[in-house]
Amino acid sequence: MAELSVGQVASRCGVKVSTLHFYETKGLIFSSRNAGNQRRFGRDTMRRVSLIKAAQQLGVSLDEIQHAFASLPSYTAPTQAQWQSMATGWQIRLNERIKRLQALSDSLTGCIGCGCLSMKNCPLYNSQDKLGKVGSGPVLLQRKAGQQ
Amino acid sequence: MAELSVGQVASRCGVKVSTLHFYETKGLIFSSRNAGNQRRFGRDTMRRVSLIKAAQQLGVSLDEIQHAFASLPSYTAPTQAQWQSMATGWQIRLNERIKRLQALSDSLTGCIGCGCLSMKNCPLYNSQDKLGKVGSGPVLLQRKAGQQ
DNA sequence: CCTTTACCTCAAGTTTACTTGAGGTTTTAG
DNA sequence: CTAAAACCTCAAGTAAACTTGAGGTAAAGG
């Protein structure tokens, strides 16, 4: 049983069948068809779906994921090296994100310590505001890559 | 100048005026009105907006944020203790999230190490799949709080 | 005073990521 | 062989988080 039906992939990946259809239209996964026009997925599809779900945890959009997947072959199972370079790429991204969250956590710690009643020395609030200078405000740790 | 106009809050927080209107309809921020029916915000509004943006980084929805804000007074500036208990709550959440991302990062590291050609020992893929047992699949680290 | 900039409200539009449903075909289990 | 379960396509609906636009009022600078 080399190939899997859409229902099998769905149940083993914990997603709905409709989600897999959707991912296929987005070019995130690929299938061939059997005699009766039903989808048949290679086993690597499950890893793709796992990676999609993992990446979404990091706040990565499907478009970006698709872009990252673009280096992988669509219809043949990716090689070891190909998976590895993808995984490495995600991990770099993931570690950046962890760092940012850590920084945010530190800011909150400062916030808890400072009391923040005065708003003058709150590290969260004052990360950019500098006590009300003209210009852009306390745009804090977000907005690294054009989120708005 | 104790109170701020919507435009001032917007530019100092790095968000659009329409976003502040939107947040107000959602009950995330509050304003009084001047003689000409224009909004006037207390300075604590900026901290609220900072916290909203920070929380969004953690994947917290506006509804949840609103719920967390519910403990704060709407029209009077929150006290030190009130801010602190909020910040502490966020930080617990934040640290949980960091832990999860760390776990994901570890899985990816395993993935990079194992090569994953066989799919038999990939820690990312096999976190729940157990080599194809019947039942639910490699539902990995997500889905902690009914995300789908 | 007058014009430009900032505000106001309310309705409708946008994007992302899916889900639901209708109407019909294929597989599979008994 | 037949009935239920699984698939198929395509269109439309949903939810979150905003944004845009129209039509009109207020405030601020010269």
Features of the shown structure:
6 helices; elongated; two-stranded antiparallel sheet; DNA-binding; mainly alpha; disordered C terminus; 3% strand; homodimer; Multidrug-efflux Transporter Regulator, Chain: A, Domain 2; 53% helix
List the SSEs and their pairings.
The structure is a homodimer of 148-residue chains.
Chain A: H1 6-13, H2 17-25, E1 32-33, E2 39-40, H3 44-57, H4 62-69, H5 80-114, H6 126-129
Antiparallel strand pairs in A: 1-2
The first copy, chain A, binds a DNA duplex (30 and 30 nucleotides) through helix 2.
Quick summary of this structure?
Two copies of one chain form a homodimer. With 148 residues, chain A is mainly alpha-helical.
3D structure, described in words:
The structure is a homodimer of 148-residue chains. Chain A is mostly helical. Chain A has a single domain, classed as Multidrug-efflux Transporter Regulator, Chain: A, Domain 2. Chain A contains 6 helices and 2 strands; from the N terminus they run ααββαααα. In chain A, helix 1 (6-13) packs across helix 2 (17-25). The first copy, chain A, starts with 5 loop residues before the first helix and ends in a 19-residue tail after the last helix. Chains A and B meet through helix 1, helix 3 and helix 5 of A and helix 1, helix 3 and helix 5 of B. Chain A binds a DNA duplex (30 and 30 nucleotides) through helix 2. Chains A, B: Pfam families: MerR_1 (PF13411).
